[in-house]
From TrEMBL:
Provenance organism: Hanseniaspora guilliermondii
Feature: compositional bias, Low complexity: 202-229
Protein name from the UniProt record: Related to Smr domain-containing protein YPL199C
Pfam families associated with the record: DUF1771, Smr
Domain Smr: 86-162
Amino acid sequence: MKPQFDYNHATDEAYLELRDQAQRAMEQYNKLSQKSQAAYKEGDKAEAKEYSTQSKKYLLEARQYNEKAVNYVFYQNNLDSSQSELDLHGLYVKEAEWIVSRTIYKFVYERKPLLQVIVGKGIHSQNHVAKLKPAIENLCNLYNLPHYINSKNAGVLCIDLKTVQIQNLPQEWSNISYVEFAEDKPLSKPAQNYYTQQAQPHYSSNQQHNNTSSSNYYQQQPNYHQSNSDSSGSAILVQVVKALIKCFM
């Protein structure tokens, strides 16, 4: 009988080594961060900055090891997946969000209608509480992506991409690395949202300008009529003067 494949790679030495290296780097990062904070509280800003700089190097190293682990486990777990499936076993929440966001962008670009994300049921999670499923659902809600749970498998989240437009997704999703994604920097706003928020005020401003121009036009009209009235009055006065002159001749 063929042994069951371990999608969580609990005994995979290559995978575990990458995670261990990432963990060791994170421990160094935490130690140096604490030293930096202590030095800052004592008033030694130069030493605090030095410790902070060193800690950031270890943080980057940890993320790089985790990215290698993600690529390794993702490749292994998806060898037998269909073209529309995405297996997230063995990934932490942030890593799963990175994989899903990049895949969504790729699928929309290639006009693939459906992405089936295997999020699991939380059986192997701490206290058996699912973490991946709510995280990916939140990602879908954030970008208005229609989604639903597979009626035949509660561990599969289906993302309906038929009506999703590429301009409504952050452009960074096309090629962002895990190291960059883990920094939680603000992503660019989708083009449609930008149009809604930015173009409308410009339209209102132009409309206000047009209304002002019209108002100025109508305000000028009384001056025009007043000028005509003055001209008519002058003509009448001339005629009266001529009539008086004839009377005295």
